[in-house]
Amino acid sequence: MNRIQIIEKTKDFLVVYKPSGIPVQTARVGEMDVEHWLKGELYAEEGREPYLAVVHRLDQPVEGLLVFARNRRAAASLSQQVQSDDMRKEYLAVAAAAPAEDQGRLVDDLQKDGRNNSSRVVPRGTAGAKRAELEYRCLQRTADGRALLGIRLRTGRHHQIRVQLAQAGMPLAGDRKYGGSRVGRGGLGLCACTLSFLSPSNGQRLWFRCEPKGEQFRDFDCAAFIKD
Fold first, then answer.
1. Strands (E), 5-129
2. Could you give the CA distance from residue 125 to residue 111 in angstroms, rounded to a whole number?
3. Alpha carbon distance 3, 19 (integer Å)
4. What confidence tens digit (pLDDT) does each residue in 26-68 have?
5. Could you tell me which of 175, 214, 199, 225 has the C-alpha nearest to residue 64?
6. Which of 197, 195, 189 is nearest to 222 (CA)?
7. Any idea which residues carry the catalytic annotation?
8. Which residue, 157, 155, 15, is CA-closest to 78?
9. What value does the CA radius of gyration of the chain take, rounded to a whole number of Å?
10. How far is the C-alpha of 152 from the C-alpha of 204, rounded, in Å?
């Protein structure tokens, strides 16, 4: 668990880098997750049971930035920002097949299947489906047809990026769940590289960034596309 990194720590929140393969929360006995690792770190430092609230999540195969609240006031503020789109999340993704256009917007209705822990695109008006929207830019292409994409989520649905890109013909590299045999080997090529929100204490907008560490990103100049 020493690959987890605390990027910023204040009295109100923790910003954390989560590696691929580690869950944010788990119900499995004996399996460590980010939440319990952080609580252990805070307990060792403070000598008492800490308050720590999960504000948002990343899928287990996804790496990148998360924010956790350290008190109830901060939890309410950050949770409201998730709902109102004041919390901004941008991703870098490696698509196994490059898009035809350099930029675009995807809008679909997604239906979650809890039994299989999956989601799928369904016709508009399907019972239980939710609208999903994202914007993408093609930042770099490789000779073998892969592409580095910059993605801005406009909604936060279950497996949204993975499902929508696969539906659009550009499944994520390493995503065998939604990409089948086209995606090759290696971990999932998806990183939550930029996180921005309003400080719960003074309302100032804060920005945090990280570079992807996964093997799918090695052929791309990711640093050039993570703005200060």
1. 5-9, 13-18, 53-54, 63-69, 88-95, 103-113, 118-122
2. 11
3. 7
4. 867 667 899 999 999 999 999 999 999 999 999 999 999 999 9
5. 214
6. 189
7. 59
8. 15
9. 18
10. 21
